Amino acid sequence: MSDYSAVSEFDQYIVNKRPAEKSDDKFFKMMKIVVGVLCGMLLLEILLYKFVQPSVRASRVVFEGLKTYTAEELTQEILPFCRANYFSFDTAAVASKLSAVSGIESVEIEKRFPDKIVARIKERESVAMTFVSDNGKTIPVQIDKNCVLFECGSVGVDSSVPIVSGIPVEFLSGGMRIPAKYRTLIDQIDRIRALPQKYFAAVSEICVLPKKYGNYELMIIPVNSRARVLTDRALNEDALQYMMVALEVVNSIAPNATEIDLRYGSVSYRTPHGGSVE
Questions:
Q1: 225-245: per-residue pLDDT in tens?
Q2: Dihedral sign, Cα of residue 167, residue 168, residue 169, residue 175
Q3: Three-class SS string for 132-171?
C-alpha cells in the first residue's frame, strides 16, 4: 500500500512540473525576441547616425595636393556647392569652378560615402615671375613651364624663381599665355632651374629688350654686382658660366663698371663716365 502511494506522488510531481517547464520556455523565447528587437533598434540607430544623417547634410570637402593655396581660399571659391549633401553634390561643376582658378592646372573630385568629398589639386609650378598692370596697379604674376600666367595662393611660391621683366603683357586673364616669341626664354629658364647648380640665386632680374625687327636681347642684373650684363637671347648653362667669369674679370679690372656687353662674341664694359673698353 505504501509503495503504491509513493508512485502516485511521483507521477503527480511529474505532471505538475511539465506546465512549469513549458512556461519557462515561453518566457525565455519572449526574452530572446525582446533582446533581438532591442539589438535591431540599436543597430538601426547606429546606421542612422553614422550613415544616413551624414549623407543628407552638407558635404565635407577635403583638399589634397595644396602648396600655395589654403583650404580656406579654395572653399570660398566653391562655397555655394558645399551646402549640397552627398547625393546632390555636383562634382563636375565643382571641378570646373576650381579649374578656373589661374594657379590650378588640374582637378580630380572623388565622393566618399557618407559625406566626404576629396578634391585632388595639381597646382601650376612657377618657372619665372613677371609683373602685369591690373586696374592701375602693378601686380606680380607667375609663369609656368607652359608659359601660362597665373596668380599663386597666399602661401606664396619658391623665392628662387627669377624675375623676368619686359615681356609685353598688358592684362591678366584666366589661362592666358605670354606671347609666342618669348616662350623659348621660359623653356630655357626651366631647363636651367632643373640643373643641380642654383644659377639663378646669383641673378636678380632678367630684362627682355625688344629689338627693332621683332627679335629681342637680354639684360641680366646680377645680385652682387652693380654692372648689368647685356647678352643675346641664348640663355643656357654655358652662357651663365661665361657671364660669371666675365663679371669676375671686369670687376677686378674696373670695379666701377656699370655695364658689361657679351654680345657679338666679344667682351666690353662701360664706366659711369660713358667710356667703353673692349
A1: 889 999 999 999 999 999 999
A2: negative
A3: EEECCEEEEEEEECCCEEECCCCCCCCCCCCEEECCCCCC
